[in-house]
Amino acid sequence: MKQFKAVNWNTPENDYVEMFWEQNLKQFWIDTEYIPSKDIDSWKSLSPELREAYKKALGGLTLLDTLQSHTGMPKVIDHIEGLQNKSVLSYMCMMEAIHAKSYSTIFTTVASTTEIDAIFEWASTNEQLQFKAKTIDSYYRKLDKENVSKEEIYMALVASVMLETFLFYSGFFLPLWLAGQGQMVASCDIIKKIIADESIHGVFVGLLAQEIFNTFSEKKKEKLKAELFILMDMLYENEMKYTDHVYSDVGLGSEVKEYIRYNGNKALMNLGFEPRYEVSEVNPIVLNGLNVETTQHDFFSKKSTNYEKTLEVVHLHDEDFDMKKELEMEI
Ligand SMILES: [Fe+2]
Ligand SMILES: [Fe+2]
User: How many CB atoms neighbour CB 197 within 10 A?
Assistant: First the structure.
């Protein structure tokens, strides 16, 4: 009979889980603490091409964060060893839902409902975007059955790192590039919070993947590494086409592609492998965008200081949960 266990935080189950729990908590934020309405004038000053590219970039990011929140994290949680590790992943899953919603917070501020509906329609039909989601999802879905192999768990974690450390960056480029020039700065504060989260997620999931990888025989390691490179090549090729689609009208394609290669190498490093892409120079505006004073991209540092709004804290009382009483009062 299956024995159910309670998560016991008294004894750490490995030497990193407590640090990741703490760091995740320090980075907590919600979209409504930011004020993207400060960007309305900036939005109006952008060319129609830039506005279109921005909407597509954010639409694509929304799709990936939705997948990660609704499928990626929940599937992975079920197959990871260690109840404390599962707790960290659960927290990260909740943040994915905040990420997915936060793009709408920006959209709602700058675009009309018709425009927003059009971009969500675009996201659900764009060939390359759908390919990204379908490819990553196929690895998550392999965890759906009764007897899942360690290789399948490993490859699902690889897919998760590919999504979080590699595939997001074609979307992150534009908000960082614009903010580096003083455009759409308030919205980019939200994007920077997401990037800081993805950074810690990629490292944590990468560590979990490496732990499993190290238990494999040399032969199996070679086989999985080859599979990983095939997956990455496929995603890379698709990412190049996606970048052409989103960025060619604004002339940023080649710079975005350089940034994608830079982050592809980071994804490999998170998984314990050597970089494999040639990167000459990533646009310094984009890299600096991650290092401005108000942003804490380094995930070992403290919570960001750029909170704009004070949260209205409403304390809940027992009677708030008394549905029966409420129902009786209504009757
Ligand atoms: Fe996310
Ligand atoms: Fe994430």
Answer: 22
Long-range contacts of the stretch 310-319 (C-beta < 8 A, 24+): 311/30, 311/33
Query: 124: domain range?
Result: 17-330
Q: What is the pLDDT of residues 108-164, one digit of tens each?
A: 999 999 999 999 999 999 999 999 999 999 999 999 998 999 999 999 999 999 999
Cα separation, 245 vs 128, whole angstroms: 9
Mean pLDDT of 216-228: 98
Catalytic residue list: 103
Q: What is the pLDDT of the chain when averaged over all its residues?
A: 90
Tell me the pLDDT band of 289, cut-offs 50, 70 and 90. Answer: low
Cα of 164 vs centre of ligand 1, distance in Å, is 7
Region 266-271 average pLDDT: 97
CA–CA separation, 107 vs 224, rounded Å? 40
Q: How many domains does the chain have?
A: 1
Residue with tokens 């950074």: 199
Calculate how far, in angstroms, residue 160's C-alpha sits from the geometric centre of ligand 2: 8
Nearby residues for ligand 1 (ion, Cβ within 5 Å): 65, 96, 99
pTM value is: 0.89
C-alpha 99 – ligand 1 centre gap (Å): 5
Two tokens, residue 37:
């309405």
Distances (CA, A) of 321 to 1, 224, 326, 330: 35, 50, 9, 15
- Does residue 9 lie within any of the structural domains? no
Of 40-44, 68-72, 207-211, 325-329, the one with minimum mean pLDDT is 325-329
Residue 5: inside a domain: no
- CATH (domain of 48): 1.10.620.20
- Alpha carbon of 197 to ligand 2 centroid (Å): 6
The CA-atom distances, in angstroms, between 308 and each of 29, 91, 109 are 11, 23, 16
